[in-house]
Amino acid sequence: MNSQPILAFIGVGNMARAIIGGLISNGYPADKIWASEPDITGLADLAEQGLQTTSDNNLAVAAADLVVLAVKPQVLKTVALHIAPAVQKHKPLIVSIAAGIMAPSIDKWLGGDIAIVRCMPNTPALVQTGASGLYANNQVTTAQRLQAETVMQATGITIWVDEESQLDAVTAISGSGPAYYFLVMESMIAAGKNLGLSEETATQLTLQTALGAAKMALSSDVEPDELRRRVTSPKGTTEQAILRFIDGGLPELFDTAMKACNDRSVELAEELGKD
Q: Given phi > 0 = left and psi -120 to 50 = alpha, else beta, which region is 4?
């Protein structure tokens, strides 16, 4: 950000700390970041880094140009209603990373006519390799979009979606996606052990292979399906495994599983966004 606006994090759990850590690592001034949580003693380490810390959400909001709502979805309504007067006073950009609660609900709780960016991050943000889907409501300006983008890019890549409903699909792909890969890793490690490898060897080979495959896909100018074909020799060893996956319905299973994730995200939005 050229103007380096003042940021306020309401709620300072793992994801908020990941974003804060990424910002500071990228050179963002620590004294331009507020961190607010009910128990300020838990923020001592951030205070030592030069952040402004407080247990008063309204104090942090009053000082900020951009407010990151990083509380649990179940308490977001209570928090939003409490800070609404401070938000209405100078209308900072609101970035919500609370899963499932749609922008109209947040806007209503904050008093209306608020610039809101909803963000669906994922857990690899904790190691600065995250993928975040972003949606902006009509009140968000171009400059504010850039501000939100810069904040979230501190932990990885950002992708904008045009419709808020598309965040449900983002949840199905990247928000919940790390768990899918962890399940694949678990399964490969178990299979390796069944083939006679030690758990340590199977684990090291599995994790390094996952890392290598992701790096190849990211750096390649061809699509993953072509990369797969290039390492699948006709009548070779890899082909035998791939045929078993396809015959077992793996592509269809992924489609069904991710649709179930998408649908549950829609349900949660309805449940959590109730007045």
A: left
